[in-house]
Amino acid sequence: MQSIYDIEVKTIEGKTIKMSEYKNKVLLIVNVASFCGFTSQYEGLEKLYKKYKTKDFVVLGFPCNQFMNQEPEDEQKIKEFCSLTYDVTFPMFSKVEVNGENTHDLYKLLKQEASGVLGTEAIKWNFTKFLVNKQGKIVERFAPSTTPESLEKQIENLL
């Protein structure tokens, strides 16, 4: 089976990297959107990142436009929005699909390893969160309504 570290992703600047760049770090992977009811969670995600980044914790934001056209902008505008509105400094990536036939390999793996409510794999909405331990194992999946702040204890336990 493929490891999370074997998967390639594209940064919001367009550079292809391997997830292995995040080996030995606790990851919080989130599909994000600029025009979602949960968009204000960028603030909490950034606070977590700033608080724990020196302890090998990283938030990874993957914009997604599959839910009611809530991320229609291109990468440059997404980057500007995140920076200007929420002072986002955690790594952001190019837009991905999290469901359907064009699901990004990362999200295929995340959904296989951590199913949602009643065992469903499909991502239901933006700001679904996946917590990954330092060994690359997907530990838990959280609903969009789960606030970043409420994950602090789980993150600390993995650090």
Automatic annotation (TrEMBL):
One of its GO terms (biological process) is cellular response to oxidative stress. One of its GO terms (molecular function) is peroxidase activity. PROSITE patterns: GLUTATHIONE_PEROXID_1, GLUTATHIONE_PEROXID_2, GLUTATHIONE_PEROXID_3, THIOREDOXIN_2. Gene3D superfamilies: Glutaredoxin. The active site is at 36. Keywords: Oxidoreductase, Peroxidase. InterPro entries: Glutathione_peroxidase, GPX_AS, GPX_CS, Thioredoxin-like_sf, Thioredoxin_domain. Coiled coil: none annotated. Residues 1-159 form the Thioredoxin domain. Belongs to the glutathione peroxidase family. This is Glutathione peroxidase. It comes from Malaciobacter mytili LMG 24559. The lineage of its organism: Bacteria, Pseudomonadati, Campylobacterota, Epsilonproteobacteria, Campylobacterales.
